């Protein structure tokens, strides 16, 4: 049963679950438009500060693309399955070396068995709470590109090993999908490189490396980890849908740099997974109106969520 039906009626859920093609188009254009504006900012005012701003904003929008692919995996980005598949695959997933079909299969298993022994994401959340030193090491590896470089090299090597082995490729799909990675790497790499080439043609030859590959290897990895920690880190390993997942409140800066497209409303998403992301704030208010606020696992901001996961521990 959908967990949300224990707290909200079908009549209350139905309008929240209404999908919109116009909103799907807007969110996709917004994500790519923000990337274009970040590149343009550096193009008009090239200096170290605008370079850093562009890198961080683009890395956050790479996470935005992952979130929109996640929406498409739930058939919530557009009304039709075909539009979800095409846009989710080619405009959201493959530009960040992800693959919609593999991710959908993996992610729906996570929803079915959230924070139980059968949850494929339990290996991520069970590590928390951890120590401040451990989190610091993880964040350092992310921001210096070591995490992204290691994963990218691993994808390349795994693709060579699995070339022509369909059964092994399928068994590997869930391993890669966990972090939005495409098991069929060589089908996504041309799209990833294509984005870099376009950036190079618009500006200098190195723009693709600086404004697509570098954010992918650094800030994207960092915010992906922060998102994972905030969603399920240091939550109950139980079947209680109010405590086995966390919603984190996010202000304008956090939404720009860490939590695009309402991804912070993760408890609400688990309540009814096919509710489009733009309606999750309404679902949050609906749950509060039922008097559930004190029972819901929430954090006032991402700093608080990280502290629960061990950021201030010894």
UniProtKB/TrEMBL annotation:
Instruction: Cite a GO CC annotation.
Output: membrane
Alphabetized, the UniProt keywords read: Membrane, Transmembrane, Transmembrane helix
> Highest taxon of the source?
Bacteria
Q: Does the keyword Membrane apply?
A: yes
Q: Where is the Fatty acid desaturase domain?
A: 49-288
Q: Which residues form the signal peptide?
A: none
Is the Membrane keyword given for this protein?
yes
Residue ranges annotated as transmembrane are 24-45, 51-73, 191-214
Its GO biological process annotations read:
lipid biosynthetic process
Q: Which GO terms describe its molecular function?
A: oxidoreductase activity, acting on paired donors, with oxidation of a pair of donors resulting in the reduction of molecular oxygen to two molecules of water
Task: Tell me the PANTHER family matching this sequence.
Answer: DELTA(5) FATTY ACID DESATURASE C-RELATED (PTHR19353:SF19), FATTY ACID DESATURASE 2 (PTHR19353)
UniProt-recorded name of the protein: Fatty acid desaturase domain-containing protein
């Amino acid at each position: 049963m959908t967990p949300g039906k224990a707290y909200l009626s079908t009549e209350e859920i139905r309008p929240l679950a209404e999908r919109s093609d116009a909103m799907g188009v807007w969110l996709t254009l917004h994500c790519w438009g923000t990337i274009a504006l970040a590149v343009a900012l550096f193009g008009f005012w090239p200096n170290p500060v605008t370079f850093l701003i562009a890198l961080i904003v683009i890395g956050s929008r790479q996470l935005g693309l992952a979130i929109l692919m996640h929406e498409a995996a739930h058939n919530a980005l557009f009304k039709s399955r075909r539009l979800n598949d095409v846009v989710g695959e080619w405009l959201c997933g493959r530009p960040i070396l992800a693959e919609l079909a593999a991710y959908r299969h993996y992610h729906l298993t996570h929803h079915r068995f959230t924070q139980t022994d059968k949850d494929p994401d339990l290996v991520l959340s069970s590590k928390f709470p951890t120590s401040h030193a451990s989190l610091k090491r993880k964040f350092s590896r992310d921001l210096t590109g070591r995490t992204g470089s290691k994963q990218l090299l691993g994808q390349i090597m795994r693709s060579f090993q699995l070339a022509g082995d369909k059964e092994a490729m399928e068994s590997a799909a869930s391993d890669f999908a966990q972090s939005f990675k495409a098991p069929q790497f060589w089908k996504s790499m041309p799209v990833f490189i294509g984005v870099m080439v376009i950036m190079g043609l618009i500006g200098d030859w190195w723009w693709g490396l600086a404004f697509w590959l570098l954010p992918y290897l650094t800030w994207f990895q960092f915010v992906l980890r922060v998102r994972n920690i905030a969603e399920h880190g240091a939550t109950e390993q139980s079947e209680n849908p109010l405590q086995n997942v966390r919603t984190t409140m996010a202000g304008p800066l956090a939404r720009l740099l860490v939590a695009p497209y309402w991804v912070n409303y993760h408890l609400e998403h688990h309540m009814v997974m096919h509710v489009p992301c733009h309606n999750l704030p309404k679902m949050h208010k609906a749950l509060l109106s039922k008097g559930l606020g004190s029972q819901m696992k929430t954090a006032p901001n991402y700093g608080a969520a990280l502290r629960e996961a061990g950021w201030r521990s010894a």
